[in-house]
Every structure is written in structure tokens, then in C-alpha cells.
Amino acid sequence: MDATDKQRKKQKTSFLSKVNWKWVGTITILSFLISISMSYLSNEALSSVNNIAAFFILLLFILLGIVFDIVGVAATSVTEKELHSMAAKKVKGAKQAVWLSRNAEKVASICNDVVGDISGIISGATGAVIIANVTQGLSPLPTTVISLTITGCIAAMTIGGKATGKAFGISNSVAIIHTAGRILAVLHLPLEKKR
After folding, report:
1. Does the pTM of the predicted model rise above 0.90?
2. Per-residue pLDDT tens for 67-106?
3. Under 8 Å CB-to-CB from 176, ≥6 apart: which residues?
4. Is residue 95 part of a domain?
5. Are 176 and 84 in contact (CB under 8 A)?
6. Would 165 be classed as within a structural domain?
7. Of the chain's two ends, which shows fewer C-beta atoms within 10 Å, N or C?
């Protein structure tokens, strides 16, 4: 084994030792539970509504993914010192905002990966239900055109919304994280202390 191979092995071992495996396990289980809950709610809502209501449910899931993506981006953009003056003045939600900033990696993982990705998956499933309802009894050509159009619209709204949201999240990170902190304060969610 030459020096290069030893260096690569050392870097790989170093990377694996830095992974918080407890957090990885927690986020995996949390993703599973949130996915089941959102899928169940989506299926229940779609089973008894018409196509217009289903379209609004679809927009709700797309919007949910965009909003959580904005919060995740803002958490990684904001710096803790920007929030300390609010915390010193005991502004409601400032303490929680500082916590969000300190735990930006976890906040971004939950907001962008867990909620954002699950919203994207459920948006696709909701779109499939809408396509099936709209194209029922149509010949293959109109079915294909409608399917491609609806799928393209879902992708465009999601990607365009998130692209716009990222710029908004970066430029308004303090206000967004403080708002998220205020929501956490109202909900009285216990926050773990950073060691």
C-alpha cells in the first residue's frame, strides 16, 4: 500500500468518524413517519374530492415544499451573531432562532430533505391521481399529452418556486429564522441544548 492509498483510507475513516450516526438514524425514522402521515392525509383528501379540489391539494403540497426549502436555506445563511441582539433584548422567538442557527445542518436536513423531498414525492403522486381522473376514457394520444403537460407543470412550479425561494431565503434569512423561532416559541417545543 503506497502513501496515496494510506492517505485516502485515512480521509475515508476521518469522514466516517465525523458522521453523526444517531442523527442519521433519527432522520431516517422521522422521514418514514412523516412520509406515511403525509401520504395517508393525501390519499384520504383525494379519495373524496373533485379534480379542482385535487389541484388545490397539489398546489398545497408544492407550496409546503417551497416554504420549508426557504426555511432550510435561511437557516444555513443566517449567522448566530445577527440573532444575539434580539435574544439579549428577550424578543419572543429569538432564543429559538439562535437554536435554529446553531443547528443549521439539522434544520436544513429536516426542511430541505425530509419535508421538501416528501412534498415532492406526494406532489407527483397527487399529479398521477389527477392525470388518471382527467384522462379516464380518453384515447392514448390525448392521455399522453395531458400526462406530460401536468407532469411538466408540477416540475416547473416546484423547481421555479424553490429557485425563487432560495434567493428570498438568503436575502431575508434573519426575518425568516426569527419567524420560525416565534412559531417554535408559540408551540412551546422543547429544544435540545447544544453541547
Report:
1. no
2. 999 999 999 999 888 788 787 788 888 889 999 999 998 8
3. 70, 71, 74, 78, 169
4. yes
5. no
6. yes
7. C
